[in-house]
Amino acid sequence: MSGANDAAALALEVRGLSFAYAGRPALDDVSLAVAAGEFVVLLGPNGAGKTTLFSLVTRLHDRRRGEIRIGGFDVRRQSVQAHGHIGVVFQQPTLDLDLSVMQNLAYHGALHGMGRREAKARALAQLERVGLHDQRRTRVRRLSGGQRRRVEIARGLMHEPRLLLLDEPTVGLDIASRRELVAHAHRLCTEAGVAVLWATHLIDEVRPDDRVVVLHRGRLLADERAQSLPARLGVDTLGEAFDLLIEKQEAACE
Amino acid sequence: MRVMPWLHCLRGVVGRELLRFLHQRSRFLAALVRPLVWLFVFAAGFRMALGVAMTEPYQTYILYEVYIVPGLVGMIQLFNGMQSSLSMVYDREMGSMRVLLVSPFPRWYLLVCKLLASTLVSVVQVYVFLAIAWAYGIQAPVMGYLYLLPALLVTGFMVGALGLLLSSFIRQLENFAGVMNFVIFPMFFLSSALYPLWRIREGSYLVYQVAALNPFTHAVEMIRFAMYERFNADAVMISVAVAVVLLALAILGYNPSRGMMARKGGGD
């Protein structure tokens, strides 16, 4: 398979992706590429199609037009390899509240075909990285929102994916936890070479040198560095640039 | 293909289900109280009204309580299967089902693991119930409890797959009351769980015909015969066939490219 398994293969490649919910288009001809170790912010208001895009990449929904490749592997035809290469932090919390941190991670390890010992070693390494090593025996119910998110990130990285998808991971977190989570995700890119696709509707989570992909009503409106976008559109801040793009799109739709 | 990762996956899914079960004591208690009420209250009350003449596989005349136990075993599995399959649908929307489905293993395998896990939970419930019944004096041959195990696995898959299928196709069944009224009660009452088929026939030929067609009847008879060290070939064949067909349909129904999820999702 050309490109597959090649270190130079894109972590995520989406080409001409369209999808509709009951006839209503949710994604319209979306193309997007994320290189290894790259941090990309998928910015869009609620209902823009961010979660739909993630659902298609993770194959929760499947009936769509277009192509999706993860690490060079086609999501449909080589789903085993493709899925082995992605980690996901969903918008809704998905940890088992009554189980301990370790039990949750061990479950994930098993779902990826790891033996007990291997799963434990990998889980401990990831917990160390997110600073929750001491909490490994704690029931998830007792953790704060920020800690739970970090456990989910640790879980998403246990099988060493090339691509980490985070769907509005900071929802419901306080400012300090949010900042820490953003910083952590950036460290993953630079230190571990993981590609991160970070979906959010919060402008203040974007750093000047992040690549920003703006999605609204299922269409890609921009794809460039956060710092160059305002200048191109003739406004001062990213916030204004974002508002302008959305307004234009709204006007075009009406 | 390496086998170990598949086994690890199975162990993970089953282990999690059992752990969750241990944590949900109220669910366990409810699963146990329900058949015990039937046994101690309903069956004891009917003992006078309903003698059961000698019928297969029993060697002697039996008390009504003895007759009803295999049916109650089926009921435990029916409730458990419906409950866990419904929770899979809720989960699908909001949580752990997503975690399960992003696993790289094929979807059919993940669903089979999940159904096996919930079946094993029901097996635990059944044996605890049978232990209490034993203490109460309803005792089958010792080997019968061993022969029972495969019958429980088949029944567990059958009702679990049915629940999954229903929940994939019928949106309105998402609350449990609906499932009780339209699935569990008809399946349970229109079967040989409470009365032998010949007895139902005396009452109403129509009800008898429905009960004879009800796969749950055959599951209960398979359980009943196994408990008394007998092999009811018809019941086993029908139960296995129904379980296999329902399982296949449930997997197809869950498949995002063909089944209900895709239709809900529209697409191209």
TrEMBL record, chain A:
InterPro entries: AAA+_ATPase, ABC_transporter-like_ATP-bd, ABC_transporter-like_CS, ABC_transporter_ATP-binding, ABC_transprt_ATP-bd_su_PQQ, P-loop_NTPase. Keywords: ATP-binding, Nodulation, Nucleotide-binding, Transport. It comes from the Bacteria. PROSITE patterns: ABC_TRANSPORTER_1, ABC_TRANSPORTER_2. SUPFAM superfamilies: P-loop containing nucleoside triphosphate hydrolases. One of its GO terms (molecular function) is ATP hydrolysis activity. Residues 12-242 form the ABC transporter domain. Belongs to the ABC transporter superfamily. This is ATP-binding cassette domain-containing protein. It comes from Billgrantia kenyensis.
Automatic annotation (TrEMBL), chain B:
InterPro entries: ABC2_TM (IPR013525), ABC2_TM_bact-type (IPR047817), ABC_2_transport (IPR000412), Alc_ABC_transptr_permease (IPR022403), Nod_factor_ABC_transporter (IPR051784). GO terms for cellular component: ATP-binding cassette (ABC) transporter complex. Pfam families: ABC2_membrane. It is found in: Cell inner membrane; Membrane. One of its GO terms (molecular function) is ABC-type transporter activity. Keywords: Cell membrane, Membrane, Transmembrane, Transmembrane helix, Transport. Residues 26-257 form the ABC transmembrane type-2 domain. It is a multi-pass membrane protein. The chain crosses the membrane at residues 28-49, 61-79, 108-136, 142-166, 178-198, 235-254. Its main location: membrane. Belongs to the ABC-2 integral membrane protein family. This is Transport permease protein.
